[in-house]
Write a structure and sequence with these properties.
With 386 residues, the chain is of the alpha/beta class. The protein contains eight helices and 22 strands.
Length: 386
């Protein structure tokens, strides 16, 4: 496949790691990349850039989308062939409070890592070698894979750089993400101690305390004292996720993230709207490695759709009999793929109109049409729809 046949524009939304990977890979394949994201935060070079702009609507169908943008540069319409959504998630510190006068000894993982990596300019050599650092997973809520991996990596850095004792407390250690199981094994071999708390229904509730002399973690097996206590950040869907989903005409999952809701799509990152792909932490809890691989998969999905230079429609699509259509909007509202619109189209008639390249042939519009104005092309209505 020559790069010349891959000259279609592809838009990438977001400033995340996945957005950076997608921009680089799509550019290497020869696509005309378009970046939309926060001002002055462009993650990688792009053919066109729209800093500070946000997507307010996505009209049309794959191959000829019209992305409506708004922001400091004003409203504008940009044509694109496909979109990769890589807006990421949001994170915030999640530190326990009211545990004693030693709260200065309680850190987020990012602050602890910052201390570990800061070069020593004065003081004792190996001043932390006799200290003990306690790191806690699953405190109050289950720690997601993203920040659990960060905590484990930080425990490794503390052990390597400070030569101190390191304890990791957990309720349910997640090891099903890429690299976590191997990392956990390496940490144990390096002398890091893992302690499970709350393992049974009769176990007492663990408690934390901190004073000027140190910190402690008390659980069913006893009490462990230390010098520092660290917790991972909380991560959550971006506050604008629902607004973005509405603009893209896709749905939001029960957990608040962008989710694939179409049972016809088994590959991760393919949204319910053809030509719109999801990458990274906008739709899944992922480590950095998983987010990187997810972006590569999104790029592969885009290239599979556009790379030949011709976008083929699905073999089974719906079609509207305009003479029967009563313009009730039922089909437009029920279509899970944004593939049908009530508009003035063929023969200048106001009626429902199927976007053929967007139609997945799922039959939802056929089964919901109250006047039987929609049918599959060249196929009878199945008996279960009668």
């Amino acid at each position: 496949m020559s790069k010349a046949s891959r000259s279609l524009p592809v838009m990438v939304l977001g400033d995340s790691l996945a957005a950076r990977v997608a921009l680089i890979e799509m550019g290497d394949l020869g696509y005309a990349t378009q970046w939309v994201g926060d001002q002055n935060a462009q993650p990688a070079p792009s053919r066109e850039t729209f800093p500070g702009q946000r997507l307010t609507a996505l009209k049309g169908q794959v191959g000829s989308f019209q992305a409506q943008l708004d922001g400091p540069a004003g409203a504008q319409s940009v044509q694109t062939a496909a979109l990769i959504v890589a807006t990421g998630n949001e994170r915030r510190p999640a530190l326990p409070t009211d545990i004693g006068p030693g709260e200065h000894r309680i850190l987020t993982i990012s602050k602890l890592l910052e201390r570990i990596e800061t070069p020593r300019t004065s003081g004792q050599v190996m001043e932390h070698v006799h200290q003990r650092v306690l790191l806690v997973l699953d405190w109050e809520t289950k720690t997601p894979r993203q920040t659990a991996y960060e905590l484990l990596e930080t425990s490794q850095r503390a052990r390597e750089r400070w030569r101190c004792e390191v304890y990791v407390f957990y309720l349910d250690l997640i090891v099903d993400a890429p690299g976590i199981e191997a990392l956990t094994r390496d940490l144990r071999e390096a002398g890091i101690v893992f302690c499970r708390y709350g393992a049974g229904p009769d176990c007492p509730t663990p408690t934390l305390s901190a004073d000027m002399d140190g910190v402690s973690f008390a659980f069913e097996e006893g009490q462990v004292s230390g010098d520092l206590l660290a917790f991972p950040d909380e991560v959550a869907p971006r506050t604008d996720t629902a607004e973005l989903a509405q603009a893209l005409n896709i749905r939001v999952g029960e957990d608040g993230y962008l989710q694939d809701v179409n049972i016809r799509h088994y590959r991760l990152g393919i949204s319910s709207r053809r030509g719109v792909f999801l990458a990274g932490r906008c739709h899944a809890d992922q480590t950095d490695t998983a987010a990187h691989d997810d972006a590569l998969q999104a790029v592969a999905n885009v290239d599979a759709l556009l790379g030949s230079g011709t976008i083929a429609r699905n073999p089974v699509i719906a079609r509207v009999d305009m003479e029967k259509c009563v313009r009730c909007l039922t089909c437009e509202r029920s279509c899970p793929h944004a593939a049908i619109l009530v508009e003035v189209a063929d023969q200048d008639v106001l009626a429902a109109h199927v976007l053929e390249l967007a139609c997945e042939g799922c039959g939802t519009c056929i089964s919901n049409c109250p006047v039987r104005a929609i049918s599959f092309v060249d196929q009878p209505i199945p008996a279960w729809m009668a």
